[in-house]
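Deliverable D5.2: sample structural annotation.
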Amino acid sequence: MTETLTPVKPAKLIINGVPVDAASGETYTTMNPATEEPICAVARAGAEDVDRAVKAAREAFDKGPWPRMKPAERQKILWRLGDLILEHGDELGRLETLDNGKPIFESRQIDVPMVANCFHYFAGWATKLAGETLPSAPSFLTYTLREPLGVVGAIIPWNFPMNMVGWKAAPALAAGNTVVLKPAELTPLTAIRIGELALEAGLPPGALNVVPGPGAIAGEALVRHPRVDKISFTGSTEVGKHLMRTAADTVKKLTLELGGKSPNIVFADADLDAAVRGASVGIFYGKGEVCAAGSRLLVERSVHDEFVAKLAERAKKLVPADPLDPKTRLGALASKAQMEKVLGYVQTGVREGARLAAGGERQPVNGRGWFMQATVLDGVDDAVEKANDVLYGLAAGVWTRDVKKAHAVARRIQAGTVWVNAYNFYDAAVPFGGYKASGFGRDLGPECLRDYTQVKSVWVNLE
């Protein structure tokens, strides 16, 4: 590795403002995907721990100061948390890279500022959530109140563990809710550390609880818990379907950001060099472990061969390397199971007639780690009409110099986000979520706050 690593201390659950062991005393080991070596022991939350966390969040919501605090005070605390994330950026970036395998450049220079921006952005919304006065009968004053839901359960994935804390917890807390956060079992370290920083920022005990553990146990307990008012989930479509069925038993609000198979469409009149760079970022950023990855590249026939050749050349130069090296742009896949799944997809594509234009094999670094070559398969899709011909509708890209064509195609694509002459851009102010089997509800932007609040109508008889 490129540096002498300070050992990472054992990670505990955060319940009611206190780092604690699991009730069972069980721990598990989180692994470094770049070295296949242990990072540290993590307390393994079970159903009893989730129940403790929910009770703490419920008490904090029903009787604690957080939802009763002046909105401006909540704003200050969330802004302070954003500042602390920036102050601890080196530490958080390193933890994310150790735990997830993504390049330190992405963790430190992109993810840390993005999660801090989430807390800064939604801090501002704490003072701006308002109801309305409504015209009705002259004998009544009618108005609405926009109120927090209560206890929000947030279940986040392993591909962007740090970012997802901001995407889920920041708007929920800004609206006055309390939160029980279940990070992915594979990548819990940055979520736990942000939970600690939240207490340092002044968040009251119980307002943000963190319970890492298996989805089938800790996640299931959170979704089934009768005192949880809403679940926000990012993950696979199959798990999302299961959560919908489970949440129905307690009539919970539910928002789901699920899988994608996103088309990236390149027209012949596009700036091909820019489109090649964008297609590369669209699929290889985050090692391709991105819900919105542009995994289906649809290129107009007249420029197909030229485009694929340029993309393959670029992919061959993108070499897996030590994620802790600031120059690295292609890190390790998050787990051995994920690497084997990707290798299986490549083998299936070739078996079904695709041509391997670049990559396709495992490529350890210094003889170890779950690294894959940047891979381009050609001849899988053959027409722009394929763009909507999937169950998913998370994101898409369009590359063209024709403004009319860009807007027309953007309207026709069935996806929650369409990038034009760009790919993989995000901002806390811009909603993100899916159509069709990619889920419903939105993360980020003013739109998501609808799903963390409820509206109460008040009628005052004036006669």
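Annotation notes: The CA atoms of residues 7 and 230 lie 37 Å apart. DSSP finds 13 helices and 21 strands in the chain.
The annotation will be released with the project's public dataset once the embargo ends.
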